[in-house]
Write a structure and sequence with these properties.
Number of helices: 9
Shape: globular
Largest sheet: 6 strands, mixed
Strand content: 25-35%
Structural class: alpha/beta
CATH architecture of the largest domain: 3-Layer(bba) Sandwich
């Protein structure tokens, strides 16, 4: 079997899983390119912004991790283009040749252009700098609010608005509400606390998901004191206020928008076909059509299931995609036929503030409460523990 060079762009869930499987073959040299020197575990960001964990909990050092795999080189750089004809990745500092290429640069918060002010006046949490910026500004504003209460309780409402009630929106709303409740209880502050509003354009939160998850999450949100507004579309956002399509307005201290995701901006410079949110169109093998040595996985793709329906982007999808393209690359090197990608959802677990969760496990098993919280934490530990052990090994090399 010939020696080959595989270049992976993006050190997220999919990219790391692909490297993990490819690195078991000594004839494959791998280069990982990422503009950040760390792997960001964004699905756990709600714990970070609610002060339950520190920043190290949601990141893993990529240089150390790559060293632990052996023939894996890490390049902290930004990709600016791909020359398909000469099989070359262009970065801000040079060109890197490849035999096979895996594009796994993930997604960013989608801010619709038809909502004026949305991008300017709201926070996203798709990156560590964005999450950290929100966390620091929120805590400073909270301190300022406590200080103003020395003159009595006649203060303005302190509203946190979450736009979008998908998985991220529901988890962040629940955790922020639980954090606010805990903060005011611990400090015994007698004045008005924090109100969390979850604004959703659909008739129900978690639209399209299992009814058990919808009911469990809604029940928990209401218990935490979250104001859930269904069938409300955001029409405009100003510095401290949103306008809804029904004419209603709501003031806010902070707003986080989770109403959708778009592919990373890299897709704008590649010359490949995309959908209207920049997701790369891939075939059944996760190849870029007409380029059998280029694959795309995870949030950056417009992947379809066997019924032709779009598969929502999740860490689980990215991981399965990474494993699949690794198998297909190895099959190609052996002269074997590649296999189409079939995604089977292994269940969904949702964190719902404090030590509470809800989930549907494989086989349709449904759990909620503290048990669901423990299961979700166990799943996260099973993912991170091997990577942290590897990173520790790489650090010593």
């Amino acid at each position: 079997m010939q020696n080959v060079h595989v270049v992976v762009i993006g050190g997220g869930y999919g990219g790391i899983r692909a490297i993990e499987h490819l690195s078991k073959n000594s004839h494959i040299k791998i280069t990982l390119i990422d503009k950040n020197s760390y792997h960001y575990m964004q699905p756990e960001v709600y714990d970070f912004i609610a002060n339950k964990v520190d920043m190290s909990h949601i990141m893993i050092d990529l240089p150390s991790l790559c060293k632990s795999f052996g023939l894996v080189n890490f390049l902290c750089d930004e990709v600016i283009g791909i020359d398909k004809q000469s099989a070359m990745v262009s970065t801000s500092t040079g060109n890197i040749p490849y035999d096979y290429l895996i594009i796994a640069t993930g997604s960013r918060t989608y801010f619709p252009n038809f909502i004026p002010g949305l991008r300017e006046y709201t926070h996203g949490v798709k990156s560590i700098p964005a999450a950290l910026n929100f966390k620091q500004q929120f805590e400073r504003a909270l301190l300022n609010r406590i200080e103003t209460q020395t003159q009595g309780c006649d203060v303005e409402p302190f509203n946190i608005v979450i736009g979008g009630a998908g998985l991220s929106g529901v988890e962040i709303a629940a955790e922020m509400a639980a954090y606010a409740n805990r903060f005011y209880q611990n400090g015994n502050f007698g004045c008005r606390g924090i109100d969390v509003y979850l604004i959703d354009a659909y008739p129900t939160i978690l639209f399209g998901m299992d009814q058990f998850l919808i009911d469990s999450a809604y029940e928990r949100l209401i218990k935490l004191g979250v104001h859930v507004w269904h069938n409300n579309r955001i029409s405009q956002v100003s510095e401290k206020e949103i306008l809804l399509d029904n004419g209603k307005t709501l003031s806010f201290e902070f707003m986080i928008f989770t109403g959708g995701v778009a592919a990373s901006t890299l897709t704008q410079y590649l010359g490949f076909d995309t959908n209207n949110k920049g997701h790369l169109i891939v075939d059944e093998n996760l190849n870029i059509p007409e380029w059998q040595n280029i694959y795309a996985i995870g949030d950056i793709t417009h992947a379809l299931d066997t019924n032709g329906k779009f598969i929502p982007p999740t860490a689980q999808l990215a991981e399965r995609g990474g494993e699949h393209v690794a198998r297909n690359i190895i099959a190609s090197l052996k002269g074997e036929e590649k296999q189409p990608f079939h995604f089977k959802n292994q269940g969904v677990m949702i964190a719902l503030g404090g030590e509470y969760g809800a989930g549907v496990l494989p086989g349709g098993i449904k759990v909620k409460g503290y048990l669901a919280y423990l299961i979700k934490k166990a799943i996260f530990w099973m993912y991170t523990a091997p990577l942290r052990r590897r990173s520790a090994i790489g650090k010593r090399r």
